[in-house]
From TrEMBL:
One of its GO terms (molecular function) is protein-L-isoaspartate (D-aspartate) O-methyltransferase activity. Belongs to the methyltransferase superfamily. L-isoaspartyl/D-aspartyl protein methyltransferase family. GO terms for cellular component: cytoplasm. InterPro entries: PCMT, SAM-dependent_MTases_sf. It is found in: Cytoplasm. This is Protein-L-isoaspartate O-methyltransferase. GO terms for biological process: methylation. Its EC number is 2.1.1.77. It holds the Pfam family PCMT. The lineage of its organism: Bacteria, Bacillati, Actinomycetota, Actinomycetes, Kitasatosporales. CDD domains: AdoMet_MTases. Keywords: Cytoplasm, Methyltransferase, S-adenosyl-L-methionine, Transferase. It comes from Streptomyces sp. NBC_00060.
């Protein structure tokens, strides 16, 4: 089967080529030249392991995976400590983005041929090559924090005939030597927009980045910069792994003192909603992480922590109205904060993700609903 042709048809059907330059770029850049000989699949097997697809063992399966429009290729686990020589369980720390989200981001970038572009996260170099097809390789600076990935991406790009400026370093610092940039596009999730990006973006330029909270991931944020202030809406969803310096910290032990209370609402109503509901709640309580759990006896619980570890709350789904359904360690009742955020979302008529936005200045970040002066949280 011609998997590349099938991917083109699928992308075309979903509107991924609505920016006219993207179909020629898709045809020009051979994704297979940027895929490793072995990679892990996102789907896990019955043991919970990510299987490896090996080009030499099953070329047809390898090609099908490379041109899969909806699934990314896991190319690194545990910062390179886990070799791609067999099924594995671990934290995936680099991937080649799925075609659907890669092209959606490029549609949202509004990039023109004369633009100077900064890309954060070179990885394989595939995305870099697509950008080079639009603006020319000389107009692209791409940064990768991982030395092995940076060398691999640069090698892939060179073999494919592209010569962008490949930098090994921390992309959150931008690249002052190549600034200013008309477009900055990031390929890892953040909770905070770096000041360096605003300062290195031309007036009227765009910053496009995945944006997470500890509570929920997956927002795609499109900011336009004017007078050093970046502001704009969420334009959709984009689930990416964390930028390395933004990774959540390991949870601390529970504080020693605790209190028992009840829940004012059925936890399932708050915790079993859609991704859009979770993302909206997270925008209200961005420094709270949640871990949904099921005990051996099938009792469902949710453990909620703040990012300092000073407060932890556990809420039980069953008999939620009774004292003891909620256990609060530390000074803050985090379940009460989540319920308040959920109530605010419901009161606002359950707004879609794209009604939210962010403004970033030297004074900090402000989350807003519908317009920048309707601030929800500073």
């Amino acid at each position: 089967m011609n998997y590349r042709a099938r991917a083109a048809r699928e992308l075309d059907a979903m509107g991924a080529f609505r920016s006219p330059w993207l179909r020629p770029a898709f045809d020009a850049v051979d994704r297979e030249m940027f895929a490793p000989a072995q990679f892990w699949t996102l789907a896990t097997d019955e043991k919970g392991l990510h299987p490896v697809i090996d080009r030499s063992a099953d070329f047809d399966a390898w090609q099908a995976g490379v041109w899969d429009t909806h699934n990314s290729l896991i190319t690194q686990m545990d910062d390179g400590r886990t070799p791609a020589d067999g099924p594995a369980r671990g934290d995936y720390t680099s991937s080649i983005s799925a075609l659907d989200i890669a092209f959606e981001k490029l549609n949202q970038l509004d990039v023109e041929p004369e633009h100077r572009v900064l890309e954060i996260g070179t990885a394989s170099g595939y995305h870099t090559a697509l950008l080079a097809e639009r603006v020319g390789a000389a107009q692209v600076t791409t940064i990768e924090i991982d030395p092995a990935l940076s060398a691999w991406g640069a090698d892939n790009l060179g073999k494919a005939g592209y010569a962008p400026y490949v930098v090994r370093g921390d992309g959150l610092a931008g690249h002052p030597e190549s600034a200013p940039f008309d477009r900055i596009i990031n390929t890892a999730s953040l909770r905070r927009i770096p000041a360096a990006w605003r300062r290195q973006t031309t007036d009227g330029g765009i910053i496009l980045t995945p944006f997470n909270t500890l509570y929920a991931n997956g927002g795609l944020l499109k900011l336009r910069v004017h007078d050093g202030i970046a502001s704009g809406p969420f334009v959709g969803s984009a689930s990416y792994m964390w930028a390395r310096s933004e990774r959540p910290r390991e949870p601390a032990r529970n504080p020693d003192t605790y209190a028992l209370t009840s829940s004012p609402i059925d936890p399932a109503q708050v915790l079993d909603g859609t991704w859009a509901q979770d993302f909206a709640i997270g925008l209200h309580v961005p420094h709270i992480a949640i871990d949904r759990q099921r005990d051996d006896d099938s009792t469902r619980r949710a453990q909620i922590r703040d990012d300092t570890g000073a407060s932890v709350t556990v809420v039980r789904y069953t008999d939620w109205w009774e004292d003891g359904a909620v256990t609060v360690w530390g000074e803050r009742d985090l379940w009460a904060e989540v319920v308040t955020a959920y109530t605010a979302w419901r009161t606002a008529s359950q707004p879609h993700v794209t009604r939210y936005g962010l403004t970033v200045s030297d004074e900090g970040q402000q989350v807003w609903l519908d317009k920048p002066d309707h601030v929800l949280r500073r």
